[in-house]
Amino acid sequence: MTDQTREAVLRGLAALRAQGCPIVADPRWDERVADVGVRRWRSVARRHRGRRLSRDQRIQDLVRGLVAAFEPDRALVGPLVRDYERVARVIADAMTPMDP
Q: What is the 8-class DSSP label of residue 79?
């Protein structure tokens, strides 16, 4: 990930934290959230061979990846999934200008 992309993701996560998003409440996790999210965003073509996903589908795929990475029991996420969607959109917004 370029420094510019990393900074865009980290700024977005800081903005979500300021808005009270519980997923990024602890800034010590920002780097890990950014790394996991960017890696998941970039690997979508490999994981969905032969299918071109829309931006919204890619964001939902990113949400699934973030939940899998940070929640011990996905069944218990419940309403927090909306916060994961907010995090995923921040990552998507930072990554979209980098897409071909």
A: T
Q: Is there a contact between 100 and 83 (Cβ–Cβ < 8 Å)?
A: no
Residue 74 sits at φ, ψ, to 5 deg, of: -60, -30
Q: What is the pTM of this model?
A: 0.90
Work out the angle at residue 27's Cα, subtended by the Cα atoms of residues 23 and 33, and round it to the nearest 5 degrees.
55
d(CA 65, CA 39): 10
User: What are the tokens at 31?
Assistant: 């780097």
What tokens were used for 57?
């589908």
Q: Quick one: pLDDT at residue 100?
A: 44
Cα distance from N-terminal residue to C-terminal residue, the chain:
15
Q: Kindly state the DSSP code that residue 72 receives in the 8-state scheme.
A: S
Full DSSP string of 25-44: -SGGGHHHHHHHHHHHHHTH
Between the CA of residue 60 and those of 18, 65, 67, what are the distances in Å?
A: 23, 9, 11
